[in-house]
Amino acid sequence: MNIFNKVYKILCEVDARFCSGFLGQIPTDIWSYIYTVWLRLAGAKIGKGSIIHHRVKIWNPENIDIGKGIRIPASTDIAGMDKILIGDYTLVGANVSFITNNHPLEDEKLNWQEVLIGTQQTIEVGKFCWLMNESKLVAGRTGLKIGNYSWLAAGSTITKNVGEAEFWGGSPAKFIRKIHPYNG
């Protein structure tokens, strides 16, 4: 763990909205650029032209790999207990959640880390996808993969792999139809 990661974890507990004076007058875009640079220093891989809003909650930035040309809006949660990969030019709506590890329900006496050993709970989102507002991506015991050009409807909870150029919606999400990758 590098020094930036340690400082990042400390600063996560401080909320910028309570800053006053000069710091409170800095426009949101500047905070977002600073936050994106800070995440890179903390170990996140963020592609060229991508911007992370400063109100995005990210756990374990060293597990995050974000492609080129992506803007992640405020109120997005990225719980990177395992790897989270977001492909180039994917559209991420407001309040989208990426959830990798959670705790098991089998036996409360078991150490949850021991139960999860050997499971790969990576979330992998392809290129040119559209994750609409309030979508929740939840990796199961074997992870979650969203194919290139796929769409998730607003408010969807996706727990199953999505093929290439597919439209899914609902909670839990179900396949709706195939889409043409260039015009829907």
From TrEMBL:
GO MF terms held by the record: O-acyltransferase activity
Highest taxon listed in the record's lineage: Bacteria
Keywords annotated in UniProt: Transferase
Residues of the signal peptide: none
Family of this protein: Belongs to the transferase hexapeptide repeat family.
This protein's name: Acyltransferase
Native source species: Candidatus Shapirobacteria bacterium CG_4_9_14_3_um_filter_39_13
